[in-house]
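Dear colleagues,

As part of the handover before I leave the project, I'm documenting each prediction I ran so the next person doesn't have to rerun anything. This entry is a single chain, and its sequence is reproduced below.
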Amino acid sequence: MTLKAKEELEQADVIVGYATYVDLIRSLLRPNVEVIAGGMGEEVERAKVAIERAMKGKHVAVVSSGDAGVYGMAGPVLELASLMRVDVPIEVVPGVTAAVAAAAKLGAPIMGDFAVISLSDILTPWSDIEKRLKAAVEADFVIVLYNPQSGSRRTPLVMAHKILLEGRAASTPVGIVRKVSRTGEHVTITTLGEMLNHEIDMTTTIIIGNSKTRIVNGKIITSRGYNIVNE
């Protein structure tokens, strides 16, 4: 969480968000703040409620995990406000997205160009996800996978793994970070070949290295081409 995000939460009159995320920041909220929490799949409804409260002059904070602009609530709020022709100031406050947070736990795996791909096919057709995976593999991007697997949605990760193995060596370094920066955080460094043998769920971020990625002293590093000479 950035300091700016923390300040906005502490000053808000109304907090709107997915219940799980709201629970994570309750200790920062003022005692008299109005909390509007809901379930997964109710993003548009929450955006509408937030806008309606803002139209009444309330200081509203819409909560996302990581960064609100990365698979978060910034898009729905801005789009809906435009559709409703609402004239209230809207500020997108940056956070720390899971790709960056997980990379820091692993070492320096995204030192160069990288691609972030969500494996959730709830809002994006699998055919589009498959195209993006294949293109990222061919372009030798380091690949960060969001929303890799849930209890009821396991096929996309298996299919993604197959695509990755078609273009990368099984020995390619892979980092698996569950619950990054939260209670219960767990960091695993493994290989592409062994990736599916580890616990992976919706709180997991997976970083797959490229042809320049290696493991050094227990950390994943992707070289940018610096000429580092051992004197």
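The helical segments are 3-11, 19-25, 43-55, 74-83, 98-106, 126-138, 155-167. The radius of gyration is 20 Å.

All the best with the project,
I.
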